[in-house]
Predict the structure.
Amino acid sequence: MNILPITMQQAYEMKHEANIALMDDGRGFVVMNGENVAAKVICCDFTQNSCHVHMVINDSKALQDNYLAKELFHFTFEVLGRTMLIATASSLNEGSLALQRAYGFEEVCRITDAFSDGEDMVISTLTREHHKRRRIH
């Protein structure tokens, strides 16, 4: 596995895969497994302290040994210098919500029917301090 900066083409593909709007301030990386993209990460909507994180995982090998988590936390907390990550997900996307919980994100808000009737938007955050206490490095 290795890490490369995300290309514009990969970001465009991610727009459709994750149903996100591309932001001018987006920065990210891809996890490569040989010639194949195992995962894509884009951070956007930057404030002084936080950024919004979007991920698409194509190959579960990116999750092994906390590889993606380590890269995500290094990129956002160290490279980008943010102290908080914000993630949103559909209440029906059990895989995304489970991954967020596994990485230490905590649900802070749920907006009823934000995506569609019966499909809430779940907003979760992870702070650098909470991450450090969890010991995923």
About this structure: The mean pLDDT is 90. The helical segments are 8-17, 67-79, 94-102, 128-134. The beta strands are 2-5, 27-33, 36-44, 50-57, 84-90, 106-116, 119-127. The first helix runs from residue 8 to 17.
